[in-house]
Write a structure and sequence with these properties.
Blueprint (H helix, E strand, L loop, with lengths): L1 H16 L2 H20 L3 H4 L3 H25 L4 H6 L2 H5 L5 H33 L7 H28 L3 H30 L6 H9 L2 H10 L12 H6 L4 H25 L3
Helix pairs in contact: 1-7, 2-4, 2-7, 4-7, 4-8, 4-9, 4-11, 7-8, 7-13, 8-9, 8-11, 8-13, 11-13
């Protein structure tokens, strides 16, 4: 545990030194505040509360932005150490390769979690300052927590990429490819299948399985169909009726998308020659 904490502290200090924490926090705060003030403007016409519309806006932002930030944080976590020649130095200390992975992961997740909580928390403070009704703040806290879980899943995928390739250039290219696949291409392909199939093969259970195979979709269903009365304004009304996935199952899917890639990363690193 001491080794994990030491490595995590090193990653956090590197994040401070490289301005990662400041940059991501300011970016998320700026976008969150923009969506809060602009996105809540039409709430009178759609009959939804400003907090509900802000939740939808920030959830949509998280699907696009947090996976990319997480992959940029983690894509060179392993191969970068090999490129710089510091991996041998790290492993010369009394630390196992699994502890090395966990320490880096805890450090990067701390950076991502801090930026998300402060960035999105500024939106809640802004809503409260304007006198908006924030009685559903529990949903807001749930959105922040699941956003961190979404980021952790893509951090783990970034580590798997980083441990599987030889150089940072290849890792960066694969990281962008993974982001495009899960955030953009997967949903477009699934939508095309649904249109062509017309419900003949892709029934509700099959659709549920497809959604769980993508952490971004698990997050989307968890947040954009779980806000009372707002799913009809997000284009998710039909999906909320067909994809009857329990909250516990969606949370478990996000946790597995974190745990499984980390476990595979550890196995790959143990077999890799230093």
């Amino acid at each position: 545990m001491r080794a994990i904490c030491a490595i995590a502290k090193k990653e956090i200090l590197d994040g401070i030194r490289n301005r990662w924490i400041v940059a991501t926090t300011l970016l998320l705060a700026a976008l969150a505040l923009t969506l809060t003030f602009l996105g809540s403007a039409p709430t009178g016409s759609v009959g939804a509360s400003p907090l509900a519309v802000t939740l939808v806006s920030l959830s949509s932002l998280s699907i696009l932005l947090l996976p990319l930030i997480a992959l940029l944080l983690s894509y060179d976590a392993i191969c970068g150490e090999f490129d710089r020649g510091t991996m041998l130095l790290l492993l010369s200390y009394p630390v196992s390769r699994s502890n090395l992975i966990l320490g880096k992961f805890v450090g990067h997740l701390s950076i991502l979690g801090f930026s998300t909580v402060i960035g999105y928390g500024s939106a809640a403070i802004a809503l409260a300052a304007t006198g908006a009704d924030i009685s559903g703040w529990q949903s807001f806290l749930s959105m922040i927590g699941t956003s961190v879980l979404l980021g952790s899943a893509f951090l783990a995928l970034g580590y798997l990429i980083s441990a599987s390739v030889a150089d940072r250039g290849a890792a960066g290219g694969l990281a962008i490819g993974v982001w495009l696949l899960f955030v953009l291409i997967y949903d477009m392909a699934l939508l095309g299948l649904l249109v062509v199939d017309q419900g003949k093969v892709i029934t509700a259970p099959v659709l549920n399985a497809f959604l769980l195979f993508n952490p971004a979709d698990a997050y989307r269903v968890l947040n954009l169909t779980g806000i009372g009365g707002i799913s009809q304004f997000t284009g998710m009304a039909g999906l909320s009726q067909d994809a009857a996935l329990p909250v516990a199952g969606l949370l478990l899917a996000l946790l597995l998308w974190t745990a499984v890639p980390l476990a595979i990363t550890t196995l790959v690193l143990k077999r890799r020659q230093v």
